[in-house]
């Protein structure tokens, strides 16, 4: 008699049951971390829907929605670019779980931004094309959006398998020029207050510097704490220089000392360069703590 007990075989969980943004792992386990990030990513959209329902978008609701979706799109794009450096600096591998989700959310806000723009032109194709051709900032925005659409279309596991890891990674480096073009579009269209575009340009400078520096180092090596401190200082100085250059172009070179003074005197408000310095200092300190912890364990 055969007494061998039959080991029940676990059936694999079908893809549709485990591919949701709030799940992780091959079994599709519920992930509180991913679920929390998903809620945070949805909050701006829900807030805008709420304001729309309440007729609380001011005299030009569609324009307000275009501005809000553009702003949230570029902010989230920037956050998605920070995920890898922070994962490496803080040695916190789980951050990688949310990178794609944040990138897809940024892309979705920006696609909505473009759709709302076309709605504002009453979906009149002739008018849309003529306006875009006439305005440099729209052409630049469109280039950025085209790159992001390519990334969105290839962001699935299926496309990753089809393209192969190396090619997929190369293609997805397009996110850097896309973010730079997006920031440029933002900078060009802004009418008076350049605070946020400057902040974004400062953070982008840090991100580009980090990537370039890390590229020079052996595979898997982290940047030393002193290099992060230097990078933060460099990005902050570049932001201040950008602000000075902008005002000297708009008003005249005589305004430059006042810009520098405003950056040194926090009583006049904290300028973008100082915010970049503060954020980069926070990251440098966190890197120092992570290094000490890693040496102890
Ligand atoms: C990745 C691509 C893009 C990014 C990151 C982006 C981001 C932004 C941001 C941040 C703003 C300014 C919000 C503010 O001033 O508060 C803005 C404004 C605007 N964007 Fe984009 N945008 C992109 C693509 C596009 C495209 C493709 C179009 C249309 C062809 C477009 C049309 C506009 C318009 C018309 C405004 C100004 C609205 C106004 O001042 O009345 N954007 N965008």
How would you characterize the overall build of this protein?
There is one protein chain. With 297 residues, this protein is mainly α. The protein has two domains: 18-189, no CATH class; 191-297, no CATH class. The chain is 73% helix and 1% strand. It has a two-stranded antiparallel ribbon with strand order 1-2. The chain is globular and about 85 Å long. Residues 63, 66-67, 70-71, 73-74, 110, 113-114, 117, 132, 138, 141-142, 144-145, 148, 178, 182, 185-186, 189-190 line the site of protoporphyrin IX containing FE.
- How confident is the prediction overall: mean pLDDT? 92
**Secondary structure category:** mainly alpha
Q: Main sheet: which strands, in order across?
A: 1-2
- Gap between N and C termini: 54 Å
Short description:
The protein contains 13 helices and two strands; from the N terminus they run αββαααααααααααα. With 297 residues, the protein is an all-alpha fold.
Record the SSE blueprint.
Elements: H1 15-18, E1 23-24, E2 29-30, H2 32-53, H3 61-90, H4 99-120, H5 125-134, H6 136-153, H7 157-163, H8 165-172, H9 175-189, H10 195-215, H11 225-250, H12 256-264, H13 272-296
Antiparallel strand pairs: 1-2
Helix pairs in contact: 2-3, 2-4, 3-4, 3-9, 3-10, 4-6, 5-6, 6-9, 7-8, 9-10, 10-11, 10-13, 11-12, 11-13
């Amino acid at each position: 008699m055969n007494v061998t007990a039959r080991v029940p075989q676990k059936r694999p969980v079908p893809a549709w049951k485990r591919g949701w943004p709030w799940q992780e792992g091959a079994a599709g386990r519920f992930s509180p971390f991913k679920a929390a990030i998903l809620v945070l990513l949805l909050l701006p959209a829900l807030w805008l829907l709420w304001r729309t329902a309440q007729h609380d978008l001011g005299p030009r609701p569609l324009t307000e929605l275009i501005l809000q979706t553009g702003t949230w799109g570029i902010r989230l794009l920037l956050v998605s670019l920070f995920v890898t450096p922070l994962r490496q600096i803080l040695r916190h591998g789980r951050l990688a779980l949310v990178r794609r989700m944040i990138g897809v959310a940024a892309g979705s806000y920006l696609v909505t931004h473009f759709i709302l723009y076309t709605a504002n032109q009453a979906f009149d194709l002739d008018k849309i094309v003529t306006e875009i051709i006439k305005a440099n900032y729209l052409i630049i925005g469109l280039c950025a959006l085209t790159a992001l659409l390519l990334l969105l279309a290839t962001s699935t596991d299926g496309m990753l398998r089809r393209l192969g890891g190396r090619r997929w990674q190369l293609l997805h480096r397009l996110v850097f020029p896309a973010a730079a073009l997006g920031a440029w579009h933002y900078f060009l269209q802004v009418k008076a207050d350049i605070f946020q575009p400057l902040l974004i340009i400062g953070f982008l400078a840090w991100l580009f510097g980090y990537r370039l520096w890390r590229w020079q180092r052996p595979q898997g090596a982290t940047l030393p704490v002193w290099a992060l401190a230097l990078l933060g200082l460099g990005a902050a100085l570049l932001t201040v220089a950008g602000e000075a250059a902008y005002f000297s172009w708009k008003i005249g070179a005589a305004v430059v000392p006042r810009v520098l003074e405003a950056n040194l005197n926090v009583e006049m408000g904290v300028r973008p360069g100082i915010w970049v310095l503060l954020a980069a200092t926070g990251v440098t300190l966190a890197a120092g703590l992570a290094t000490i912890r890693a040496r102890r364990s």
